[in-house]
Design goal:
By secondary structure, the protein is an alpha/beta fold. The strands form 10 sheets. A 4-stranded antiparallel beta sheet has the order 6-5-14-16. Strands 10-11-9-12 form a 4-stranded mixed beta sheet, covered by helices on one side. The protein has a 4-stranded mixed beta sheet with strand order 27-26-29-28, sandwiched between helices. Mean pLDDT is 92; it is low at 1-9.
C-alpha cells in the first residue's frame, strides 16, 4: 500500500482488533514476497537459519521465545538495508517422530513390523506432512518473517546428499568407525539413544554391599552396587594402586559369587580410595567407566542381557528373566548364601528414555561412531585462538569448551526405520563392508553384487549438525546461497542444547567448510511457569502459544516473551505480564487514533519539521533520536529486555503521556502555522515509532503505519530510524524537564490535599534566575493548561504567600495558596518528611564524594555530576527549611 491508498483519512476503529490485523497483514506480507531474501544483491547479507523444530507435534512457548527473538533480529536488519535471509525448516527427529507414529499405529492395533519398513515409512511421511503444515500455520500466527521459498527439511534430497557426503568423507578419513562400545540403550524401543534423549529422574533405590572372597581363602573384598544383576558380568574388582588396605591383594584372584567365575583384583587410579570401601566391581559390558577401565586392563566384556532387557545365556540360571525380576531373585540368592552384607536405602539419578519411559541400560553394542578427538581439538583450538564463535553471554563459552574438551566418541547409529539410512553395504557372501554415496558406487568399490545395506539410521543430530551449510546447497560449493549467505550471522538457541547441537554444528562446520557456521551464538534461557518450575506434561503447566495469541494477540505475546529476560536467563511466564503487554498495545493504538484524527488530509508532502519548533516538539524529536540510538545499540548487543524497557518508557511516558497532551494546545489552537508544525512532528514521530516497535509488535505497527502518511508498501521495508545529531537538543530537554517537574509537583500537591484536577487553583512561581524565568514565560500556556490555574503568577521578586502548599523543583519555588483547603500542621509534617529525604540524599552524595576510592577512580564528569547533585539537594533543603519557618511564623 502506497500513499494513494493511505488510510489516514479513514477513521480507525475505536479499539484494536488483533485477530483482524493478524489475518490481514500476514498474507499480505507473505504474498508480497517481503520475507524473501536475494532482492538486494548489492547489500550486505545477514543470515539466520531457524533451529528446526521437530515434526512431532505443536510448537511450545519455548519455540515462541526462540523464534520471536530471531524475527526481531531479522526484521531490524531488513529495515537497516541488509539482504536479510531467515531460512525456515523442520527436523525429522528420528526416534521422537517414529515413537509418535508407532503409538498412533498401536491405537489402531498395528505395529511397524506388521506394515514392513516401506509401508511404515509412508505412514511417517504422512505424519510429517501433517505436522509440517501445522508448524507453518503456527509460524504465521506468531508473525514470523521467514523466507518460505527456501524452506528445508532434514530428510529432503539435498540435505540427504549432504549427510551421505559427510559420512563418506569422515569414514574415508578414519573418523567414522564401526565397533563395540557402551551406549545408552532403550530396551523398550530397542535402539541406541543420544544423551539428550535420556531424562534423569531421582529414584528411591538401594545400595547393595556384596562380599567377594579371595580364591586363596585369605580374605574378601566388599563392593557396593545399585544394580546387583550386573554382577553376573563382572570381570574384575578394582582398587587404587596406593590404597594400603589392598596392596597385598592386587594381582590376586577373587571368586565371583553365585557364578563361580575367577576374576582378578586390578589397580587403577580411576578408583577413589576414600569413597566407600575403596573397591569397585568392574562390568565392562554394562557401565561406560568400567568399559574404559576394561580396555586399559584387557578385561573380557560379558553382556548378560539382550536388547529387550531380558537376561541372556551368560546370566546362567537367571536366563529369560526380565532385568527387574533378575534383581529380586539374585538379591534373594545372595542373602541366602551370605554374600549380601547389607542393603542401604539410596536415592540416586536414574536415566529414563525420553520417548518410551523405560530405564535406560548402559549397554555394550556394535554401533557406528564418530572419532571425536581430532574434530573437537580443531574446534577448541579455533575458539581459544580467537577465531571461534562469539557466545552471548560469554559465560556459555565455558559450557561449550568443557563439553568439547571432555567429549567421548559419538554413537551415531540408531536402530530405527525413520531417518537417514547409514550409507554402508555388506557383502552377503564375505561380510565385507563398504561405505559409499549409493549402492551403485558401493558395488563398484567392492566389486560384488550381493550387497545388503545397513539397517540402521543416523542419529538425528548428525543431520542437524550440518544444518547451517547443508540448507545452503552444500556440498555444491558453487551454490549461490552457500557463497552468499554462509557463514550465518547468528544462531539463537537455548542453553540446554549447547553440547548436543551447537557444539556439533561448530566442529562439522569447521571440518567441512573451513569456517565457523555462525559469528554469534545468542543463548537464551528456558521459559518456566510463574513459580519458576520447568514446564512439563506431568505438572500440567505448559503454555500453548496459540492460546496466548487467541486471548491477547500475537503482538502482546511477542512483546512479553522477548522483553521479559536478559540473555542466558530463564523467563517466568506470567499471564499478568501478557495482559500488561496487551494494555501497552492498546495505549499505542489509542494514542495513534487520536493523532490520526488530527492529521485529517495530511500527507507525506506536508511533513515539515524544519524551522522554529515549540519546546515539546523539539524535545520529542530529541527523545526519539536518543531512543533510536539506544535501541539500535541494545539490539546489536542482544539486550532485548532493556530494549523493551526503553520502548515502553518512550512510548507510554514521553510520547503518550506528555507529548501528545502538549500537542493538543497547538492542534486545538488558532495558530495554523504552529498547528501544521505540530502535525508534522506528530506524523514524523509516530511513523518512526511504528518502525521501532515493528520488530517486536509487527501487526499493530503495520496497521497504524498504513493509516499514517507514508511512502512504501509496508513498514517492514521502511528504513530503520537512525541517530541524527541535528535532533540533539539539550536546551529543549532542560526546558521540558522543568515543565514536567512543575506540572508533576502541582498534581502531587493536588493529590495530597485531595483537590481534583477539574478544580482550578492559584499558582505562583518564583524562578531562581532570569534563564529559568524565560523558560517559564515561553511555556506559560502549558503550565496554565496542565496545572488548571485560575490565577497564575511568575516572578523573580515573588513574595511567598501565607498558608500555601509549597514545592521546590530544580530552579523554581512553587506556591499554591489554598486557604481553607489545607491543614497547616499537616503541611509542616509533609515538609519535615521532605527534609528527611533531602538530608539522606545530601548525606549519601557527601559520603560518596568523601570516599577517596571513588574520587580517585571515577571519571571527572561523574564526579562533577555528583557535586551538582549535592548543590541541588542542599539548595532544595535550605528552601524547604525556610518555608517551614514561614509557616510556623
Amino acid at each position: 500500500m502506497d500513499q494513494k491508498q493511505n488510510q489516514s483519512q479513514l477513521e480507525m476503529p475505536t479499539t484494536y482488533d488483533p485477530k483482524a490485523a493478524e489475518q490481514k497483514w500476514y498474507p499480505y506480507w507473505k504474498e508480497g514476497g517481503f520475507f524473501e531474501a536475494g532482492k538486494r544483491p548489492d547489500a550486505e547479507p545477514y543470515t539466520i537459519v531457524i533451529p528446526p523444530p521437530n515434526v512431532t507435534g505443536m510448537l511450545h512457548i519455548g519455540h515462541a521465545l526462540d523464534f520471536t527473538l530471531q524475527d526481531i533480529l531479522i526484521r531490524v536488519k531488513r529495515m537497516q538495508g541488509y539482504d536479510a535471509l531467515w531460512l525456515p525448516g523442520s527436523d525429522h527427529a528420528g526416534i521422537a517422530t517414529q515413537t509418535k507414529v508407532e503409538q498412533k499405529l498401536r491405537e489402531e492395533g498395528v505395529t511397524r513390523y506388521d506394515l514392513g519398513r516401506e509401508k511404515f515409512l509412508e505412514k511417517v511421511w504422512e505424519w510429517k506432512d501433517l505436522y509440517a503444515n501445522t508448524i507453518r500455520d503456527q509460524w504465521s500466527k506468531i508473525g514470523l518473517s521467514l523466507d518460505y521459498s527456501r524452506e528445508r527439511f532434514t530428510l529432503d534430497e539435498g540435505l540427504s546428499e549432504a549427510v551421505r557426503e559427510v559420512f563418506v568423507k569422515l569414514y574415508d578419513k578414519g573418523l567414522i568407525y564401526r565397533g563395540k562400545r557402551i551406549i545408552n540403550w532403550d530396551p523398550a524401543a530397542r535402539t541406541a539413544l543420544s544423551d539428550i534423549e535420556v531424562e534423569y529422574k531421582e529414584v528411591n533405590g538401594h545400595l547393595y554391599h556384596l562380599q567377594y572372597p579371595l580364591k586363596d581363602g585369605s580374605g574378601s573384598i566388599t563392593v557396593a552396587t545399585t544394580r546387583p544383576e550386573t554382577m553376573l558380568g563382572d570381570t574384575a574388582v578394582a582398587v587404587h594402586p596406593e590404597d594400603e588396605r589392598y596392596k597385598d591383594m592386587i594381582g590376586k584372584t577373587l571368586v565371583l559369587p553365585i557364578v563361580g567365575r575367577e576374576i582378578p583384583v586390578i589397580a587403577d587410579e580411576y578408583v577413589e580410595k576414600d569413597f566407600g570401601s575403596g573397591a569397585v566391581k568392574i562390568t565392562p559390558a554394562h557401565d561406560p567407566n568400567d568399559f574404559e577401565m576394561g580396555l586399559r586392563h584387557d578385561l573380557p566384556q560379558i553382556t548378560v542381557m539382550d536388547e529387550s532387557g531380558t537376561m541372556n545365556e551368560f546370566a546362567g540360571k537367571y536366563q529369560g528373566l526380565d532385568r527387574a525380576e533378575c534383581r529380586k531373585q539374585i538379591v534373594s540368592d545372595m542373602k541366602e548364601s551370605g554374600v549380601l552384607l547389607r542393603i542401604e536405602d539410596h536415592v540416586h539419578q536414574v536415566g529414563h528414555s525420553e520417548r518410551s519411559g523405560a530405564v535406560v541400560e548402559p549397554y555394550l553394542s556394535t554401533q557406528w561412531f564418530v572419532k571425536m578427538q581430532p574434530l573437537a581439538e580443531a574446534a577448541v583450538d579455533a575458539q581459544k585462538s580467537g577465531k571461534g564463535v562469539n557466545f552471548v553471554p560469554d559465560r556459555f563459552e565455558r559450557t561449550y569448551l568443557h563439553w568439547m574438551e571432555n567429549v567421548r566418541d559419538w554413537c551415531i547409529s540408531r536402530q530405527l526405520w525413520w531417518g537417514h539410512r547409514i550409507p554402508a553395504w555388506y557383502s552377503e557372501s564375505t561380510g565385507e563392508v563398504v561405505v559409499a554415496m549409493n549402492e551403485e558406487e558401493a558395488r563398484a568399490k567392492l566389486g560384488k553384487d550381493d550387497l545388503r545395506q545397513d539397517e540402521d539410521v543416523l542419529d538425528t543430530w548428525f543431520s542437524s549438525a550440518l544444518w547451517p551449510f547443508s540448507t545452503m546447497g552444500w556440498p555444491d560449493l558453487d551454490s549461490e546461497d552457500f557463497k552468499r549467505y554462509y557463514p550465518t550471522s547468528v544462531l539463537v538457541t537455548g542453553y540446554d542444547i549447547i553440547p548436543f547441537w551447537v557444539s556439533r554444528m561448530i566442529f562439522q562446520g569447521l571440518e567441512f567448510t573451513g569456517q565457523m557456521p555462525f559469528k554469534d551464538t545468542l543463548i537464551h534461557g528456558l521459559v518456566r511457569d510463574s513459580e519458576g518450575r520447568k514446564m512439563s506434561k506431568s505438572l500440567g503447566n505448559g503454555i500453548d502459544p496459540l492460546e496466548v495469541i487467541e486471548q491477547y494477540g500475537a503482538d502482546a505475546m511477542r512483546y512479553m516473551i522477548s522483553t521479559g529476560s536478559t540473555p542466558g536467563q530463564d523467563l517466568r511466564f506470567r499471564w499478568e505480564r501478557v495482559e500488561q503487554a496487551r494494555n501497552f498495545a492498546n495505549k499505542i493504538w489509542n494514542a495513534s487514533r487520536f493523532a490520526l484524527m488530527n492529521l485529517e488530509g495530511f500527507t507525506v508532502a506536508d511533513i515539515d519539521i524544519s524551522g522554529e519548533l515549540g519546546t515539546a516538539d523539539r524535545w520529542i524529536l530529541h527523545r526519539l533520536n536518543e531512543t533510536s540510538r539506544d535501541i539500535t545499540r541494545l539490539i546489536d548487543a542482544y539486550e532485548f529486555g532493556e530494549t523493551g524497557r526503553l520502548l515502553y518508557n518512550f512510548i507510554w511516558d514521553d510520547l503518550c503521556d506528555w507529548y501528545i497532551e502538549f500537542a493538543k494546545l497547538s492542534l486545538y489552537g488558532e495558530d495554523q502555522t504552529a498547528k501544521k508544525k505540530t502535525q508534522s512532528v506528530l506524523a514524523y514521530v509516530l511513523d518512526r515509532t511504528m518502525r521501532l516497535i515493528h520488530p517486536f509488535m509487527p501487526f499493530i505497527s503495520e496497521e497504524i503505519w498504513q493509516h499514517l502518511p507514508h511512502e512504501g508498501e509496508t513498514v517492514m521495508l521502511a528504513s530503520w530510524p537512525t541517530y541524527d545529531e541535528a535532533f540533539e537538543n539539550t536546551e529543549a530537554v532542560t526546558e521540558m524537564n522543568l515543565l514536567m517537574d512543575v506540572i508533576r509537583a502541582v498534581r502531587n500537591i493536588r493529590a495530597e490535599v485531595n483537590v481534583p484536577m477539574s478544580k482550578k487553583v492559584e499558582l505562583q512561581l518564583k524562578p531562581v534566575s532570569g534563564q529559568i524565568a524565560g523558560i517559564i514565560d515561553r511555556n506559560s500556556d502549558y503550565i496554565r493548561r496542565f496545572c488548571n490555574t485560575s490565577e497564575y503568577e511568575s516572578s523573580l521578586a515573588l513574595e511567598a504567600p501565607d498558608k500555601a502548599m509549597t514545592a521546590v523543583v530544580t530552579g523554581v519555588e512553587m506556591y499554591l495558596p489554598l486557604a481553607g483547603l489545607i491543614d497547616i500542621a499537616q503541611e509542616i509534617t509533609r515538609l519535615e518528611k521532605e527534609i528527611q529525604h533531602l538530608n539522606s540524599e545530601v548525606e549519601r552524595v557527601e559520603k560518596k564524594l568523601n570516599n577517596p576510592g571513588f574520587v580517585s577512580k571515577a571519571p571527572e564528569k561523574v564526579i562533577e555530576e555528583e557535586r551538582a547533585k549535592l548543590a541541588d539537594y542542599s539548595d532544595k533543603r535550605s528552601k524547604v527549611i525556610a518555608r517551614i519557618e514561614e509557616l510556623r511564623g
